[in-house]
Each structure stands twice: as structure tokens, then as C-alpha cells.
Amino acid sequence: MAQKDRLEQIRQIVRLEKKVVVANLSNQFGVTPETIRRDLEKLEEEGLVVRTYGGAVLNQTESSEKIDFVKRSETNVEEKRAIAGIVSEMVPPNASIGCDASSTVMETLKYLSEREDILVLTNSVKVIREMERSRFGILSTGGRVNRQSYSMQGGVARSTIQEYHLDMVLISCKGMSMEGGIFDSHELEADVKKSLIERGHKVYLLADHSKFGRVAFMKLTDLEQIDVVVTDRKPSDEWMRLFSRNHVEVYYS
Fold first, then answer.
1. Coil, helix or strand for 253?
2. 90 and 77: one domain?
3. Are 161 and 199 in contact (CB under 8 A)?
4. Torsion sign across C-alpha atoms 83, 240, 183, 16
5. How far is residue 207's CA from residue 176's CA, in Å, rounded to a whole number?
6. With 0-12 CB in 10 A as exposed, 13-18 as middle and 19+ as buried, what is 9?
7. CATH number, residue 11
């Protein structure tokens, strides 16, 4: 049986039974446990499963929260454009900018399409495809492509990012809470964002009002690692005090 056929059958089993065991799959498909572990690693990269000792379980959080790029780009459009307009005015001359694969960051880059003095490093397949006629320079992180989020992930992407110093980093998130910090819904995407944060001189979090008070699958970073929050409406006084204590600048439309 070809790997793609085996993977599709494993996907069906996971969705039906919610969990799988390496030994059982090895016997069922007549392949070694190592082969099954590699299959489960691939399915984890897709976001379908979370590997456990001896097997894997259906990623319930990912299944409910993960929305493909097209759907995300059609959600809260006006809010994203308001945020993008603010951020675009903050980009200094000759800036190097690290960008994640979020739809909000994509909107920001549309505002910057005529800026030939800036250089963008991104793991977004959409940016590379749709902004090819823009005047700014584009560098790709490379990496394994996640076809649902149109992003590049994995060790290659992280290693590429480590080679650069970035004046600005633009990221979004799935949620942020006062107690827990900043959250994202996909581990591999979060790893890329963490690498961007590490290499950024100044980190900008682009988050509309729906992200406040929301917790997602995994923690991305602490609020103290963020320099600037840009949102579409003024946060509550409690949030503003929290930002002030963590020395975070806040801008809103």
C-alpha cells in the first residue's frame, strides 16, 4: 500500500475512533512501528493528531479552532483593515520585517505594497504568491507547506529565521488572556512565530477585539515579550493597566 493511501486510512480511523495505537496500526497495515510513527508525525504536522506515548489522539482543539486561510481572511475584515492601516504608518524607512502567515499581517502588507525600501521575511505562501508584484523585497523562510494555513513550518523555516536580524516582527494570535499570555492554535505555526519573536528588535501583536480574553490550544509567549499591541478598538481599563505594567504600547482605531 502506498503511503498516501495508508495515511488517508489512518486519518479516517483517527476521526472515527479519536485515538490510535502504533502497535495496532503496525499489525493492521503490515508495516514497522517506525513507519507508523513517521506517519503519525506527518499527521501531527498537519494538525490532525497529537502524538502520545505509544500512539496518538485526535487534536480536538485543533479540529474546532483551525480555520483555513480563506475563511480567516473573510472574518472581521473591517477590523483587520483598520489594524493594518495603523501598522502601515509605523514602518520606518529601510525596515526589515518578519511576518507570520496570518490574514491580518497579509492585510498590512497590502498597505505597504508600494514601499520599495523595505524587506519582508515571511513563512506565508499567500504573501509570496499574491504580493509578487509589490515593490518591497520578499524572502521566504522555506519549510514544509501547510496547505490549510498556506504557511511554511518546521525546522527549515525556524533555521532560516535565525539567520536574520529583523527591525520589526508582525504577528497575530488566536487569543490572549490576562493570566496566561498570548495563545495560538497550532504548535508548528507557533514555533515559527517564536523564532520571529526571538529575532525581532520590536515585536508587534496585531489582534482585533475578539482575541481579548480568549485562550487557545497552546501558549505562544508572555505579554512581556510584546512591544506593541495594535487592535481595532480601545481595550478595557483593566487591559490597559496590564499593558502599562508590562511596558506594552497600545494603538487602536
1. coil
2. yes
3. yes
4. negative
5. 9
6. middle
7. 1.10.10.10
